[in-house]
Amino acid sequence: MNKINVDKSIQRAKSGGTFNFFKTKFIGVEKEIYNFELIFSLESLNPFKTVQGGMIASALDEVTSISVNILTKDMFLPSSTDIHISYHRPLKSGKVLGTAKIIKLGKTIVSVEGRLYSDPGKLAATALHTAVLIKTSEIDIKKVR
């Protein structure tokens, strides 16, 4: 994995609001698993004082999508067709570990598994994310217009 390609993908991710909202940090890749640190702020809590389910889904979408962009050397971004979330335990505000593993990268579709772990390292949520691959060159042209 080339640092220039990773930096390009992270810069692209920073152009969206969720990267900054979760204070996302790319940690690295180990054994084909992309690792991220995210922070759930007090604004992401529900009335039970745990992280709201939609925020968890958004964080999983973020780490899986960035991972696809890194793997494809910023040539593609995933456009979700399905994201299935399973919630295993509540999350509190603060740091979490987010991971992503590309299950299958095809010519037009990608399937990715995402996971969120609480600070003590307990599995809190999992995702199976399927998406159509969109060329970043097409996205960049639309931005210019």
Structural class estimated from helices and strands: alpha+beta
Q: Biggest sheet: strands side by side, in what order?
A: 1-2-4-5-6-3
Which range best describes the helical content: under 10%, 10-25%, 25-40%, 40-55%, 55-70% or over 70%? 25-40%
Q: Identify low-pLDDT runs.
A: none
Q: Indicate the CATH topology.
A: Thiol Ester Dehydrase, Chain A
Q: What sequence of helices (H) and strands (E) makes up the elements?
A: HHEEHEEEEH
Report Rg.
15 Å
How many domain modules?
1
Query: What's the story with the biggest beta sheet?
Result: 6 strands, antiparallel
Tell me the total number of β-strands: 6
> Proportion of β residues?
35-45%
Q: Kindly, what is the distance between the CA atoms of the first and last residues, rounded to a whole number of angstroms?
A: 32 Å
Average of pLDDT = 95
Number of helical elements: 4
CATH architecture: Roll
Shape: globular
**What is the class in the CATH system?**
Alpha Beta
- CATH H-level name... which superfamily? Hotdog Thioesterase
Short description:
The protein has 145 residues and is of the alpha+beta class. 31% of the residues lie in helices and 41% in strands. It has helices at 3-14, 17-21, 53-71, 136-144; strands spanning 25-30, 33-40, 76-87, 94-105, 109-117, 123-135.
